[in-house]
C-alpha cells in the first residue's frame, strides 16, 4: 500500500485504532489494527499499522495512541431545526394531561409558539440557547450539522435565524450548513392567504438569502397542514433560479406526492417519508434523491405508520438518518439514540443506521466527496468510541460512549 506523493512528515498520526471506515466491501469498512495519517486537516494515509515505517512514527509532529478504540467517520446530522428559542415542555405536559392539539393551539401553542419565541429573542439569545445543543452534539461525535431556519416566517426573522447559523459555524469547529425553510408553516398574519405568503418567500426571502450567501439549500414542508405541491413547486423554481439546492419534508402525515415532485427538481433529499408510495421511491432512486428517515418525531408523536424501508431498499434509494432536533416533535440532540430507534422502530440494521449518520447523510447534503467516510483525501473528521464493536453504537439506549471527537485532525472534544 504505497501512496504516491506521500509527504515525509505527518502533522498527526493516529495509532492503535479499529477503523470503521464505512468504505469498501467489508461490513462497516472494518480495518482492525489500523492507523491514519493527517496533513492539513485531511486524511493522507490509512491502512494496517504494521505498514507504517518506524521513521514515519518518529517524525510525525504528533502521535495519538487510541488504545484499540473504534474510530468512525465524524457523524453528520443532515436534518435539524437546532436554532430555536425556549422549549415546548409545557405543551408536552398539557398533552399528557389530556389537552387536545386544538386546545394547545388556542393557547398559542404548537409551531407558532416557537415562532413567537424566536421573533422575541435577540440574535445573541438565540445563539446562546442553540450553542448548548450544538455542544451536546459535538460531544456525541457529530462533526457536521445541517440547521434550518423556519421559525421566523418573516424576512427579518428568517435572516436573523440564518445569521445565527452562520455564527455557530464560525464559533464552533464543526461544519454547520444552513438551509432556508421559509415555507415551514403559515405565519398567523397570513391566515387565509397562503399564496401571498409564498409570494413573499419566492420574491423577497429567497433572493435575500441568496444575495447574502446565508444558505446553501431551500427546504419546505409539503403537507395538508402546511403547503401544497403547487406552492412548493414555486418555491423550488425560485430556489433553482437563485442557485440554491432543494430538499423537502415529504409524506410525513399523508401521501401528498411531494417526493415525486422533489425528485423532479433533483432534490438532494426527501425527508420523513412515512407515507411514501412506490412512485415516490422509484422517482427518488432515478434522481439520486436521498431518503432521510427521522425516528425522533415518529417516536415523540406516537406515530404508527413507518417509512417503507423494504421498498427503499428494493428500489436502491440511499437512506440517511437524522435527529430532526426541534422543540415540537423531536427534542433531542442524540444521533446514537436515533440510531437505536431507527433499528428498533424502523427495522434498519446497525450498519444501515451508522451509514445513515455518516456517508449517506453526507450524500443528503451533497458533501460526500469530502466527508462521511474515512478515506484518503477526505476531511480528517472522526469520532473515537469506547465500544467493543460497531453495532454497539445503535444498541445502547442513552449514555455516551464517545471518547473523542476530531475535526480537521484537531481534537475538539475529549
Ligand atoms: N416537521 C416536523 O416534524 C417539524 N417541522 C416539520 O416540518 C416540527 C417542528 C415543530 O413542531 O416545531
Ligand atoms: Fe424537520
What can you tell me about this protein's structure?
With 414 residues, the protein is of the alpha/beta class. It has two domains: 12-74 and 372-413, Urease, subunit C, domain 1; 75-364, TIM Barrel (Alpha-Beta Barrel). 37% of the residues lie in helices and 22% in strands. It has 16 helices and 16 strands. It has a seven-stranded mixed β-sheet with strand order 3-2-1-4-14-15-16, with no helix packed on it. Strands 5-6-7-8-9 form a five-stranded parallel β-sheet. A hairpin with a 2-residue loop joins strand 2 (30-39) and strand 3. The two termini are 31 Å apart. The chain binds 3-[(4S)-2,5-dioxoimidazolidin-4-yl]propanoic acid (DI6) and fe (iii) ion. 3-[(4S)-2,5-dioxoimidazolidin-4-yl]propanoic acid is lined by residues 111, 114, 184, 221, 249, 252, 297, 324, 326-329.
Amino acid at each position: 500500500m504505497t501512496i504516491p506523493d506521500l509527504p515525509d512528515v505527518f502533522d498527526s498520526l493516529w495509532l492503535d485504532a479499529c477503523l470503521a471506515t464505512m468504505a469498501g466491501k467489508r461490513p462497516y469498512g472494518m480495518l482492525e489494527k489500523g492507523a491514519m495519517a493527517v496533513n492539513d486537516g485531511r486524511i493522507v494515509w490509512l491502512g494496517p499499522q504494521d505498514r507504517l515505517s518506524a521513521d514515519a512514527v518518529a517524525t510525525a509532529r504528533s502521535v495519538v495512541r487510541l488504545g484499540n478504540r473504534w474510530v468512525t467517520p465524524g457523524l453528520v446530522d443532515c436534518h435539524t431545526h437546532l436554532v430555536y428559542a425556549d422549549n415546548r415542555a409545557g405543551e408536552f405536559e398539557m398533552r399528557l394531561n389530556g389537552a387536545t392539539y386544538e386546545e394547545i393551539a388556542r393557547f398559542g401553542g404548537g409551531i407558532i409558539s416557537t415562532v413567537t419565541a424566536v421573533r422575541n429573542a435577540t440574535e445573541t439569545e438565540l445563539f446562546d440557547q442553540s450553542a448548548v445543543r450544538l455542544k451536546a452534539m459535538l460531544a456525541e461525535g457529530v462533526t457536521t450539522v445541517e440547521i434550518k431556519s423556519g421559525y421566523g416566517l418573516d424576512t427579518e426573522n428568517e435572516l436573523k435565524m440564518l445569521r445565527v447559523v452562520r455564527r455557530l459555524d464560525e464559533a464552533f469547529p464543526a461544519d454547520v450548513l444552513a438551509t432556508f425553510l421559509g415555507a415551514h408553516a403559515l405565519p398567523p398574519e397570513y391566515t387565509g392567504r397562503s399564496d401571498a405568503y409564498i409570494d413573499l418567500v419566492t420574491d423577497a426571502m429567497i433572493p435575500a438569502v441568496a444575495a447574502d450567501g446565508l444558505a446553501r439549500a431551500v427546504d419546505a414542508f409539503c403537507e395538508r397542514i402546511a403547503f401544497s405541491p403547487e406552492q412548493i413547486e414555486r418555491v423550488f423554481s425560485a430556489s433553482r433560479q437563485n442557485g440554491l439546492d432543494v430538499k423537502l419534508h415529504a409524506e410525513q402525515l399523508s401521501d401528498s406526492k411531494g417526493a415525486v415532485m422533489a425528485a423532479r427538481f433533483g432534490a438532494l433529499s426527501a425527508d420523513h417519508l412515512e407515507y411514501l408510495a412506490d412512485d415516490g421511491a422509484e422517482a427518488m432512486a432515478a434522481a439520486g434523491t436521498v431518503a432521510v428517515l427521522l425516528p425522533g418525531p415518529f417516536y415523540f408523536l406516537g406515530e404508527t405508520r413507518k417509512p417503507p424501508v423494504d421498498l427503499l431498499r428494493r428500489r436502491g434509494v440511499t437512506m440517511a438518518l437524522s435527529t430532526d432536533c426541534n422543540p415540537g416533535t423531536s427534542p433531542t440532540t442524540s444521533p446514537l439514540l436515533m440510531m437505536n430507534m431507527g433499528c428498533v422502530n424502523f427495522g434498519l440494521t446497525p450498519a444501515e443506521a451508522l451509514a445513515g449518520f455518516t456517508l449517506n447523510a453526507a450524500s443528503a447534503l451533497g458533501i460526500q466527496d469530502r466527508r462521511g467516510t474515512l478515506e484518503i483525501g477526505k476531511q480528517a473528521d472522526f469520532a473515537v468510541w469506547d465500544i467493543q464493536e460497531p453495532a454497539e453504537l445503535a444498541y445502547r439506549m442513552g449514555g455516551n460512549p464517545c471518547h473523542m471527537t476530531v475535526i480537521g485532525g484537531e481534537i475538539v472534544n475529549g
